[in-house]
Amino acid sequence: MSEELAKGWEEWSKTVAGALALDLSSTLGSPVSAEVEKAEMISDVDVRSSLPSDTTGCFANLKEGGAIALLLGGPNALTLAKAKNGGESVTVGDDEKSALEELGKGLAGVLQEASMPLCSIAPIWEETSVAFMADSTWEGGEDRVPSGDLLRSVMVLTPQQGETITIEVILAQDLCDVPFDKMPAYRDSADDEVDLDAPRHILSFCSDAKIAERIAEFVSEEDSHKSAESVSDFLERFDDDDINVGIIEVKSGDEFWLPLLGDLKGRLDKPLIVVLEEPKTWRVVQCGRLGLFGVLSPEFSGRDFQGRVRSERLQPAS
């Protein structure tokens, strides 16, 4: 592995570990520290041979093939599921699988957000999925470990109270096609605390009434929401001190606004989410290279919406 790739993979791994720690901190209501124990290139054979016989796999699946996998060994999965379950024990059997599935989809969603600038196709996701391996055999018989040269990170999450949790994240090296020195820097959660529970004051502009209705529906009761009259009105009001989240629809043919939106986000360092009328792969890639990682399709769900808002608040624009 080249020196640049090794350094970049380690830095990106710290970003993911920090995002996972913040997600768990929000669940537990108390701090969780994160440490990258190992960031390396490894063969698929070595990954398979080192997996615990009982493993939970959480997969951020890509529409154009491949996946980014987050792997939890049996005890770690149950510990994390218990933490997510409010400290209540998770029984073995169907209840365990249900809890782990819910846990896994949430973790894969965090992984999606953190991975967006890493892979040019990463913003175009299929549904997240969860799979279980028991006695060294994946359910359904399909081997879920990617083939070929892999990048692997071993991350250790340590809650202020409770058991330490070890997580592995693996990615096929051929999916990693953005030079690490060109990747926007993420906020280091250890140096810059973000209050995820603070009220959000959202400004939006959407000419599509259905999208506007979706946003109004998914804004939580604790947040405030104002609508701009036009793109120009949005650009002017987004600078207001009382606005800390922006959401704007960009229709097909109006993509010339994207560089300006990227500059605006970079200048103000505020979360800015873009709803693309036509979220084609190359267009989403363009957004990522402009620092606009919070991209939604017009059919976004409430979970997608809240996930993008949350992720945007964890990272700066530049």
Written description of the protein model:
- With 318 residues, the chain is α/β, with parallel strands linked by helices.
- Helix content is 36%, strand content 24%.
- The chain contains nine helices and twelve strands.
- The protein has helices at residues 3-28, 44-50, 74-84, 94-115, 209-218, 231-237, 257-268, 281-289, 302-313, and strands spanning 32-43, 55-61, 67-73, 129-134, 137-138, 149-159, 165-172, 201-205, 224-227, 245-250, 272-276, 294-296.
- The strands form two sheets. The protein has a seven-stranded antiparallel sheet. A five-stranded parallel sheet has the order 9-8-10-11-12, with helices on both faces.
- Helix 7 (257-268) links the parallel strand 10 (245-250) and strand 11 (272-276).
- The chain is globular, with a radius of gyration of 20 Å.
Quickly describe the structure:
With 318 residues, the protein is an alpha/beta fold. The protein is built from 9 helices and 12 strands.
How is the largest sheet built, in terms of strand order? 1-6-7-3-2-4-5
Number of helices: 9
The total count of strands amounts to: 12
Mean pLDDT over the full residue set: 75
Q: How large is the radius of gyration?
A: 20 Å
Beta content comes to: 15-25%
Major beta sheet summary = 7 strands, antiparallel
Order of helices and strands: HEHEEHHEEEEEHEHEHEHEH
Q: N-to-C terminal Cα separation, in Å?
A: 27 Å
Helicity, in percent? 25-40%
